[in-house]
Amino acid sequence: MRNAKEAFSRYAADSAVHSLIEEVELTPKPGLVDRVNNGAHQDLTIELMLKSALSLKETFEQIAFISYGNSPSLSLREEIAAIGRNGENRMFETTGGVNTHKGAIWAIGLLVSGAAMGKGCYAIKEIVSLAGETARYPDRHCPNIATNGMLVSAKYGVNGARAEAEQGFPHIVQVSMPMLKRSRAYGLAENEAQLNSLLALIASLDDTCILHRGGPEALIFAKKQAASVLSSGSLEKLKILNDEFTRLNISPGGSADMLAATLFLDKIQGHITGDEVQKEVESIH
Question: Other CB atoms closer than 10 Å to residue 40's CB: what's the count?
């Protein structure tokens, strides 16, 4: 009989990887890699993104395993960070040095940890709270290297991925998850519901990937256009927006990471409310 801790860790890792795959396969996305084109990216392909996602399964499984039944602490924060850095190295080995999922490792890794702390029984509100509390602990072993996101955050005075996590992922809780659920409630197909969730994120998030590539003007343009397409409900306009983002070298990579994290939380929420895997885990407690 399999151990409940191992069973949930595998389930959480599978859900995390599946969420990354869902995000990259979602089509059509503005400025991002999808099943039709590579958006504003010269160094990324869908095949590379899929290989990268699959390479991270062990990373997420290890994070879930060490977090299972624990509480936020300095030692746990540093253990998660070490596992995450190993995952980044594995990602770079898989992609030949291309950064495909560094932001997603950070965000989803913390959420995997929060979900595992509750042994798969916590609701989203509790998971993001625990993830935020964990993120606020310092990592004394973190290399003293400023990332593009950190530099952009400091230059323009906006919240980056770190602040988003430390605050308990407010854009997921207040923007992308409500939009995902509302779109489904309106009877939209899952692909459209996820696209609406992504557009809502682009329209509201100070995406440091956009700022890094195009500065404040690009961010203002991206937010305005995403809000316009969202209100129109037209996938044809979304295709036109992809052409515009590609032409202007706009890539909402931070929003894409938040969408993948949203999809992960959605899967974990489904697990809580009666998923078969939950029953399996409960049966071996």
Answer: 24
Instruction: Please report how many Cα atoms fall inside a 13 Å half-sphere around the Cα of residue 269, on the Cβ side.
Output: 15
> Roughly how many angstroms between the first and final C-alpha of the chain, as a whole number?
10
Hey, what amino acid is at 86?
N
Domain count, the chain: 1
Whether the model pTM is above 0.90 = yes
Sheet strands (E) in the chain:
none
Tokens for 216, please give them: 């404040």
| DSSP code per residue over 134-148 | HHTS--TT------H
CATH code for the domain of 153 = 1.10.4200.10
**Range of the structural domain that residue 54 is part of:** 4-141+148-283
pLDDT in tens, 209-259: 999 999 999 999 999 999 999 999 888 899 999 999 999 999 999 999 999
What Cα–Cα distance (Å) separates residue 165 from each residue in 44, 206, 221? Answer: 26, 14, 25
